[in-house]
């Protein structure tokens, strides 16, 4: 899953009245070791863009949580906010990707 972050200035739009809602990003992860090296990079980029957004003073970026549906913890749980859930039963999954 790829997230693209873009900041666009729209000076003609009025600012949202406070309190502004924050968007929370959830990323699904099955726990495959081939994808594991990319997750810390994505988390780092998210934090970097969020810090720049907050510096401008009108940031709608909220938290970042990884949804790990392998059913067991992994080595990234101390580094990235993670919720571990059981995998879906095979008869409930349409595609195996």
Question: Can you offer a commentary on this structure?
Answer:
By secondary structure, the chain is an alpha/beta fold. The chain is 20% helix and 19% strand. The chain has a domain at 34-92. It has one helix at 38-56; strands at 23-29, 61-68, 82-84. Helix 1 links the parallel strand 1 (23-29) and strand 2 (61-68). The chain is elongated and about 50 Å long.
What labels describe this entry?
3 strands; alpha/beta; single chain; 97 residues; 1 helix; elongated; disordered N terminus; 3-stranded parallel β-sheet
Shape: elongated
What is the CA-based Rg, rounded?
A: 17 Å
> What's the total count of β strands?
3
Q: Indicate the structural class.
A: alpha/beta
Count, helices: 1
The helix content is: 10-25%
Mean pLDDT comes to 76
Strand order of the largest sheet: 1-2-3
Order of helices and strands: EHEE
C-alpha end-to-end distance? 11 Å
Low-confidence stretches are 1-8
Strand content: 15-25%
What composes the largest sheet?
3 strands, parallel
């Amino acid at each position: 899953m790829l997230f693209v972050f873009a900041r666009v200035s729209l000076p003609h739009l009025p600012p949202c009245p406070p309190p502004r809602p924050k968007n929370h990003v959830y990323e699904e992860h099955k726990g495959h070791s081939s994808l594991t090296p990319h997750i810390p990079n994505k988390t780092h980029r998210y934090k970097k863009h969020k810090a720049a957004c907050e510096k401008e003073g009108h940031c709608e970026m909220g938290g970042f949580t990884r949804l790990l549906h392998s059913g067991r913890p992994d080595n990234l749980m101390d580094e990235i906010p993670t919720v571990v859930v059981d995998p879906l039963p095979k008869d409930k999954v349409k595609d195996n990707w």
